[in-house]
Task: structure prediction
Amino acid sequence: MEHYDVIVIGAGHAGVEAANISEKYGLKTALITKNISDLGKLSCNPSIGGVGKTHIASEVDILGGVICKIGDKSAIHYRVLNLSKGPAVWGVRAQIDRDLYSKYMQKYIKSSKIDVIEDEAINILEKNNKIVGVECLSAGKIKSKVVILTTGTFLNGKIYFGREVKEAGRIGNSSSKELAKFINKNFTMSWNLSLQKIMEYISPILQNKIRTKISIATLQKQIIKLIK
Ligand SMILES: Cc1cc2nc3c(=O)[nH]c(=O)nc-3n(C[C@H](O)[C@H](O)[C@H](O)COP(=O)(O)OP(=O)(O)OC[C@H]3O[C@@H](n4cnc5c(N)ncnc54)[C@H](O)[C@@H]3O)c2cc1C
Result:
């Protein structure tokens, strides 16, 4: 059985940052994700920063994280929001090319010593009240001293399209029901933690066939101002 210092479950924003820092500390690290193609997948609105999130991205950057570095490589548009107001509420927002971001993130992680495991984590292993690893659907039990859970919106995830309801982590990804069941059962007993519901809403996104009908030439250009 493989032994790791750290196993990170989930390879979204949070997971890649956790695995990256763990590897930088010289720890033997595994990153488990349901799909390798999900590695570093951005949320529906592929922007980084903005009011309220700029400082988080910057702090992660200063602490050695990858979000801003990969973000800069794949950015297509920058804006400083709230420039008409005081500096306390300025926020840099970079609009990112989703495909490029994933491509560069996958390249970065593949060039590191992080072991990427494409599998579904279904259980967290425990012995004498201590976490000792993870059980995966295909790979079975993998030992680790530390397990970091960054499963985003996948635990018991559901998507609502109008009146239609589907079980899904997000579009194209299955919901993590087994792990959610495990957490609800065991975390509630041991630490009085249970899963809560969070709702995310997105506005309709224009399909390509409609997009091509937009007369780009008539649109007003946004002037990009960067803070020096
Ligand atoms: C419809 C929708 C719209 C959103 N829009 C925005 C937005 O516009 N802006 C914004 O900032 N945020 C948005 N979010 C929130 C978004 O989820 C987070 O911003 C961001 O993606 C969270 O990153 P994360 O790393 O926590 O999780 P995610 O990016 O969700 O990554 C979770 C990872 O965990 C993996 N995983 C899950 N369960 C398992 C398992 N059992 N075994 C192995 N791997 C597993 C998945 O494969 C995935 O790689 C939106 C969410 C949804 C659902």
Remarks:
- The longest strand covers residues 140-149.
- The CA atoms of residues 14 and 118 lie 17 Å apart.
